[in-house]
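S1.2 Input.
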Amino acid sequence: MNTILLGFEPQVLSEQQLAWVQALAPNMKLLLTTQRSEIEDALDEIEIAVRRFPRDLLRRASSLRWFQQWGAGADWLMRHPEAKELDFILTNVSGIHAIPISEHILAMLLSFARALHQAAYAQQRQEWLAEPENLFELAGQTMLLIGVGAIGQRTAKLANALGMRVLGVRRNPSINAPGVKAMYSLESLPQLLPKADAVVLTVPLTHETKGIIGSRELRAMKPSAVLINIGRGSTVVEDELIHALQKGWLAGAGLDVFESEPLAKTSALWAMDNVIISSHYSGSTPKYNERALDIFLDNLRRYRASEALRNVVDKTLGY
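S1.3 Output.
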């Protein structure tokens, strides 16, 4: 019997949720496990895999036709290029992160604007903080949004509501987006960075985006500008960002992602008072599994009806 591998720990999915899956595929077996040995035992029968699947087993999964990953980024394809040639469809849950991540971005920007991160440090020291000299207003400032997918579009909407002007950068600049005043290609970064008060990266990690922010780009930024990265750590050259922050090439950075995670305790970023660090949780929300499951259930219905699936990842491009 063909099998749907549900890569979840016990009790993550409710009995009702499991019943919804079974109702859409009544003639398929449900295998609920994250245990490698159990997955290997059923490898020849797994037609659909959801959430967790050992990447090194993909080549041996001869019956696999569809893998629904539980995140948006597919940069794991860079480490497993063989997956591009295998006969399975890859889909993601792109779109479900738009609300929490856009709010996380604005939280970081507002923290810099009102020096709330400095106030938090002062509170820990029981120190009355004199009025900071580096306060600013977001209204009237320019945001350069590098990556204008679902997350970027909602970020633009929130930034507009605060009176910001938003410029966008995307792979195909001919595609406009609500709230984005003008759209550009990656090649335009050198001309755009000096105009930006906030540079926000929401791009996935691909061969094209790896290291797109390095010394040259950081040197082009305003000394008063802040950089926010919630996409992937390796889109920014971390050592060069540290150097730029130390030299005052930019005012600060809000970082949710890093080249290596967890961030090493020896990293200079920890001690910088102009850096806000969060531990790659900008996309987290109590509604995560609910929203991701909705995409999977809709795709399962489509799959069974031989209809086009939502959120198909181009395995060659990596997104």
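S1.4 Remarks. The chain has a mean pLDDT of 97.
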